[in-house]
Amino acid sequence: MPRAPSTFPLERRPVVKHTATSVVTIERFIIEQERMFPEATGELSGILYDMALAGKLIANKVRSAGLVDILGAAGATNVQGEAQQKLDIIANEIIVKAFDHGGRLCAMASEEEPDIIHIPEGFRSGKYVLLFDPLDGSSNIDVNVPVGTIFSVYRKITRGTRGEMEDMLQPGRRQVAAGYVIYGSSTMLVYTTGQGAHGFTLDPSIGEFLLSHPNIRIPEKARYLSVNDAYEQDWPEPTRALMRRYRGLDGVRSPLNVRYVGSLVADFHRNLLGGGVFCYPANAKARRGKLRLLYEANPLAFIAEQAGGLASDGIGRVMDIQPTELHQRTPLYLGSRAEVETVQEFPLPPEFVDRRVGTAGGA
Ligand code: AHM
Ligand code: MG
To answer: Where are the beta strands (DSSP E) in 111-169?
Structure first.
């Protein structure tokens, strides 16, 4: 029998007092949050600054992506005689280089790399691990559609100085921080450390992320449904029925508007601010969907829950899944609480409820 989602945690009361009209840099905001925890060592704050820096560096590269034909396409040679790289590889390198020497991490894992990324010899090893998708939706770059970086931080749980696989394979509920950067009409960074979800917009004239969306709350009344229904023919019948419900076709409710960018960060960001549900269901050809549990689903689930929303894999709470592999996939229903709870009314057939099926896979 499919399992109903486990109890989702109670919302935590947002503790930050700033409004969108105070001028607060991300740095000041992080320091103020850290001061609320006298035992904090500043290491987690350092990770968040480094991510803001990496986000600015990647934003800079993404902004000139349309010039690749002029400056040299991937695989070609640029005017300096250097080989051009794909943007997702560049973004990956930017993040690795922003973090490998800081002494705060003991290891990293990236959607772009097959194995754990260890801290190079000679650098101090810290007590956190970072998992990230350096440039999600990168196939959209060619057509000038927003893309994003997604990240997730856990405390090291193994002994010894090196980060191990066990440190990476922790359920999402153990995340100590998570967030994303969206490279859209403006660049925004949204993060949580479990004290609400907060958004910062990059002011390009001064190169600073400024607090623009304190204490984000996902609207209870959803407006949007984001799903790629080209997979409908492969969905199990309950998933088709669920989508008919969202579209108001079964007469139970009024329809949601369909909006699908095909760039998870962009679809999630719109639904976070405007209210809605993002769905990437399991289908007969991909029993565990497409999206990655550790690099995509868990961090956005943490943000969603902190904003009063939910995330489910169609079986239960995403952040309760015990990962077994670094690149594990998961179906994903993410966004406004009531819409994600509706998923429980459409239990999946038995062949879709084994979380160990079809988790492996390449990039
Ligand atoms: P990527 O990590 O290779 O960029 O793939 C993830 C992207 C998500 O941003 C998006 O939600 C999804 O793939 C879209 O997939 P599809 O084209 O199957 O709808
Ligand atoms: Mg991705």
So the answer is: 117-118, 128-136, 147-155
| Dist. CA 262 → ligand 1 center (Å) | 6
Query: Ligand 1 atom 5: the closest Cα is on which residue?
Result: 137
Give the residue ranges of the chain where pLDDT is below 70. Answer: 1-21, 66, 68-85, 357-363
Q: Report the greatest alpha carbon distance in the chain.
A: 64
Identical fold for domains 17-213 and 224-353, yes or no, is no
Mutate to test the pocket of ligand 1, among 145, 280, 288, 295 (most ligand atoms within 8 A of CB): 280
Residue 278 CA: nearest ligand 1 atom is 11
pLDDT of residue 363: 31
Ligand nearest to the CA of 279: 1
Could you tell me the residue ranges of all domains in the chain?
17-213, 224-353
pLDDT at residue 83, as a whole number: 55
Tell the CATH superfamily of the 17-213 domain: Fructose-1,6-Bisphosphatase, subunit A, domain 1 (3.30.540.10)
* pTM (predicted TM-score): 0.91
Give first-to-last CA distance, the chain, whole Å: 31
Q: Which amino acid is at 140?
A: N
Residues 245, 342 contacting (CB under 8 angstroms): yes
Quick one: which ligand is closest to 86's CA? 1
Residue 77: predicted pLDDT = 54
Q: How far is the CA of 263 from the centre of ligand 1 (A)?
A: 6
C-alpha 226 – ligand 1 centre gap (Å): 12
Encoded tokens for 173: 């509920």
Query: In the 8-state DSSP scheme, what is residue 350?
Result: G
In this prediction, residue 191 carries a pLDDT of 97
Q: For 178, phi and psi rounded to 5 degrees? A: -160, 160
The ligand 1 atom at the shortest distance from the C-alpha of residue 136 is: 4
Residue 144: per-residue pLDDT: 86
CATH number for the segment(s) 224-353? 3.40.190.80
What is the CA(193)–ligand 2 centre distance, in A? 22
Q: What pLDDT does residue 73 have?
A: 52
